[in-house]
Amino acid sequence: MSTIELLSWNVNGIRASYGKGFLDWLHKTEPDILCLQETKAHVDQLPKALQAIEGYHLFYCSAERKGYSGVALFSRIKPVSVKNGFGIKKFDVEGRVIVAEYDHFVLMNIYYPNGKASDERLKYKMEFYDAFLDTIDRYRDQGKSLVICGDLNTAHHEIDLARPKENEKYSGFLPMERAWIDKFLSHGYLDTFRTMHKEAGHYSWWDYKTRARERNIGWRIDYFFISENLIGHLKDACILSDVTGSDHCPVGIKLEF
Q1: What pLDDT, on the 0 to 100 scale, is given for residue 210?
Q2: pLDDT value at position 133?
Q3: Domain of residue 95, CATH code
Q4: 144: buried, middle or exposed (CB in 10 Å: 19+, 13-18, 0-12)?
Q5: Residues spanned by the domain of 155
Q6: Has residue 257 been placed in a domain?
């Protein structure tokens, strides 16, 4: 039996995170697989130290627009294959998806859109959600096991944010967004953290401007989901709320095979 530790973190700019000790944290923590979101950089904009890290295979997916969106995968385990995007141009130009196939599962590292800016962006977000669900269901129908992580940009239940009533009319906690998560889970996927932790007060994002982290006025919008056939392999699910360097903190799981 071997244990695989996976972590996911919206770093809110990988260059900014690098300046706050990201590599020191990585070398200390040494996850087997690290998924990053909102990297906000093309590879040629990165410090050399982030272009090659000893012990890790690195994969970057950047938006066409510089300084925007982007995801990355740092993996000690060499994937069988890696591809970027859903194969749908209007989503893939924003650099939000890395799909890596491993021996035991297909991993999807995703930075889901934020719908707060406008009705148009909310529509884009919901269309992205549906394209994502179509994509993972195709993998599931092929008999694949799935691990899905990233910044979903939606809190699911009232327990998942500190102030639900004040936010129920804002994107990130709208009934339509929450209903979509219900639909997604009904297709045979599990919210790993909630399979092990039922209590309130666990969040992964806090607003910088209001210094919300100091008061733990947060949202749980960063997730690891797994297909139901992996539940017997799930050994732990965590939120590393003590890790700073971004307005988000890392979340993680351990799988045993």
Answers
A1: 92
A2: 98
A3: 3.60.10.10
A4: middle
A5: 3-249
A6: no
Quote the tokens at residue 173: 């906690």
* Alpha-carbon span 121 to 114, nearest angstrom: 7
Is pTM beyond 0.85? Reply is yes
Per-residue confidence (pLDDT) for residue 31, from 0 to 100:
98
> Helix, strand, coil proportions of the chain in percent (round to 5)?
30, 30, 40
* C-alpha–C-alpha distance, residues 134 and 127, integer Å: 11
Instruction: Assess contact for 254 and 4: CB atoms under 8 A.
Output: yes
Q: Which residues of the chain have pLDDT under 50?
A: none
* Enzyme catalytic residues: 151
- The edge-to-edge listing of strands for the beta sheet with 146-151 is 81-84, 97-101, 106-111, 146-151, 222-227, 189-191
3-state secondary structure of 136: helix
**Any domain includes 256:** no
Residue 227 lies in a domain: yes
CB-CB contact of 66 with 39 (8 Å): no
Q: Give the DSSP per-residue string, 14-78.
A: HHHHHHTTHHHHHHHH--SEEEEE-----GGGS-GGGT--TT-EEEEE--SSTTS--EEEEESSP
How many CA atoms are closer than 13 Å to the CA of 14, on its beta-carbon side?
Answer: 33
The predicted pLDDT at position 181 comes to 98
pLDDT of residue 39: 98
Contacts of 235 (CB under 8 A, 6+ apart): 3, 254, 255, 256
**pLDDT value for 79:** 98
Helix 119-141 vs helix 175-186: crossing angle, to nearest 10: 0
- Torsion from C-alpha of 200, 201, 206, 212, nearest 10 degrees: 130
Residue 146 counted as domain residue:
yes
Domain count within the chain: 1
